Amino acid sequence: MDYTTLGRTELKVSVAGLGCGGFSRLGLNTGGTEAGAIAIIHAALDHGVNLLDTAAPYDTESVVGKAIKTVPREQVVIATKSSVFRGGERHPPERVIASLDNSLRELGIDCIDVFQLHAVPPSGYDYVRDVIAPVLLKEKEKGKFRFLGITETSPNDLEHRMLLRAVPDGLWDVVMVAFHLMSQNTREAVFPATLQHRVGTLLMFAVRSIFARRERVVAAMQELAAQGEVPRSLADDPDPLGFLVHPGGATSLTDAAYRYVRHEPGVDVVLFGTGDQAHLRSNIESILRPPLPQADRDRLKSMFSHLRGVGLVVPPRARGATP
Ligand SMILES: NC(=O)c1ccc[n+]([C@@H]2O[C@H](COP(=O)([O-])OP(=O)(O)OC[C@H]3O[C@@H](n4cnc5c(N)ncnc54)[C@H](OP(=O)(O)O)[C@@H]3O)[C@@H](O)[C@H]2O)c1
Q: Which residue's CA is minimally distant from atom 27 of ligand 1?
């Protein structure tokens, strides 16, 4: 495993972080058992992953808690989240504190490393900055968490407007941001600011569902060609990103997707979600491989850097599968 420093937190974190939500929820969304989910976490830790990202709405905090019981606390970095906005309502500060307290109980720990406000829309930023954050900082003084973080709601904030305001504010030590090979505007919009302010970054959406299956890329290309966003020839190609797989290049579509984000200046930790032991191994291998060849990266930039909102799908509503 390779390790890096998570921005100004100075936490030493693995460049690959295990996402405990998303489409898989450690396999719990795809027919897996709690024992299987715990085995995924242990396998990740055995490979040197030391950052686990969960959230109250994922309903995987208790599984993470059980998995880390046998692990010395200082060997693992725990990031979790509370929602503030749900179903058109915004939670009062007491509800966010109750969520924090519940996370501590579910995880079975005294102190969370990174406590994040989950999927904050641009329209909600003033509220979290002015009302929620001051109250949370008092909870931080009590020792309930070490660093405050915030995550964007990618499908609803294609220009990263929330983070553009949050990063310079000095309140948030860590941000979670979307970036992938067909959603590239994070490069110019967000990373220069996170680097300048030494804000740690957790990268989401590297694969999501689109780069897990070739047919989903084909479907996306057909939609984009119909909108005039990509040439028709790409929509007619049964393997539109196949040019990335070659000797000296990527070994698969998913390998390309992880390697594309991993080496971007400004990316600290690449989150990956899986309930599959073989995927876990291959994802870590991909994240540790060298960058994609420059010619392939240049081609991806010229083909896709103008696109917005591709592949940022939210999992189908299943228990805890947000967002
Ligand atoms: N706003 C937010 O706060 C927010 C939003 C999104 C994500 N996140 C965080 O980011 C984490 C990662 O999310 P993500 O969107 O990048 O990914 P994800 O939602 O976890 O999805 C990855 C998908 O790809 C599949 N997959 C993984 N490795 C594969 C491989 N090698 N080959 C083929 N399929 C593979 C997984 O299924 P298998 O189980 O079959 O491997 C899963 O369906 C989440 O768990 C969560 O912690 C946070």
A: 274
